[in-house]
Amino acid sequence: MSLTKRRLRLYLASAAFLFVVWATYKTLFVGSKCKMGDNLNPIITNILETFEKHGIQVYLDDGTLLGMYRDGKVMDFEFDADLSIQQADLDKVVALRKHFQDSYDYSLYTLGDYIFQKGWTMLYMLKWEPYLVDAPCVRIYDPDKWYYADVYCDVRVTKAEMLNLTTFPPAGYDDPKNAGKMFLCDMEMGTRENCMFEDMIFPLKTIKGLGRDLPVPHDIEGVLTQVYGPDWRIPRPKGIKTIICNRTGWWASFLVVLVILFILSIPIRAEFRERERPRLPLSARDHLK
After folding, report:
1. How far is residue 90 from each of residues 112, 131, 132, measured CA to CA in Å?
2. Read out DSSP for 253-285?
3. DSSP labels, 198-260
């Protein structure tokens, strides 16, 4: 059998093996990541009920707000839950660490905490390093440290303070009719959604979802427009989940895996070609000296 035919059979066998591995992975692991409602709904409900019971004002934010308002559910391709509180309530939330652990087996982390169970996220750099929480101000994990809710902390500031905190002030901040208004800026600075007019958020109102009343900003559509732009009503899945969650079809997702593996194999194949290069026998090389 020629070397070319042996290589072709090897490639085909490798592709078949990888397809089996990929299909198994999608079936056992990816499926739950592509339909996040079943995983995030109880986390959202338990956190809201706990915060409200302890007098902590909380509301849905970012992707969770978008999904509940536009789609009536947690978006299928969501990664986590997003909630917001007032920074003044941060100590109250951190004090609930033991309550979440005892009641739901949840793990609560705050700024400066290390999540040692998430050290595997650095293995791609050939080192193990625990995850350091630097944003948001609180992260609450489910028992398996797989699904979580990010809790952002809003700071109430004046216009001058807001301009010192962000390079993305909200539209209309310099309009004379908005003179004297206060702003809410979350602790993760640097993106356009970080500061909003306080009256866009408060007083909170509710919408129906998850079998209960869900607290949301006063001007939901204004908040979503500032965060996601005027086309927020149009679903636009993005990121790796558009591949692994069948947004482009099972064949495309598998094809992407093959392309990535092919690219990674280039230096290995080059090394094999170098080793297979015909070499002169020792006697012939001695003759050439």
Report:
1. 14, 21, 18
2. HHHHHHHHHHHHHHHHHHHHHHHHS----HHHH
3. HHHH-S-EEEEETTEEEEE-SSHHHHHHHHH-TTTTS----STHHHHTSTT-HHHHHHHHHHH
Show the tokens assigned to 82. 């997003």
Tell which residue, 78, 183, 99, 91, has the closest CA to residue 138: 91
Give 44: exposed, middle or buried? Use CB within 10 Å, 0-12, 13-18, 19+: buried
Residue of higher predicted confidence among 7 and 156: 156
Question: 3-class SS at 136?
Answer: coil
Partnered with residue 82 across adjacent β-strands are 150
Compute and round to an integer the Cα radius of gyration of the chain: 26
Nearest one of 279, 266, 258 to 14, comparing CA atoms: 258
Q: Which residues contact 36 (CB under 8 A, 6 or more apart)?
A: 74, 75, 76, 77, 78, 79, 147
Whether the full predicted model's pTM is greater than 0.85, yes or no, is no
The confidence score (pLDDT) of residue 189 equals 45
Answer for the pair 61, 84: CB distance below 8 angstroms, yes or no: yes
Question: Mean of the per-residue pLDDT values for the chain?
Answer: 80
- Interval 36-93: pLDDT, tens: 788 899 999 999 999 999 999 999 999 999 999 999 999 877 778 999 999 999 999 9
Which residues lie below 8 Å from residue 74, measured CB to CB, with a gap of 6+? 36, 37, 40, 41, 44, 64, 67, 68, 81
| Confidence category of residue 160, pLDDT binned at 50, 70, 90 | very high
**Dihedral angle sign, alpha carbons of residues 9, 12, 15, 17:** negative
Q: For residue 100, which phi and psi values (nearest 5 degrees)?
A: -65, -40
Strand 81-86 vs strand 148-157: parallel, antiparallel, or unpaired? Answer: parallel
What is residue 249's predicted lDDT score, i.e. its pLDDT?
A: 46
The per-residue pLDDT for 219 is 97
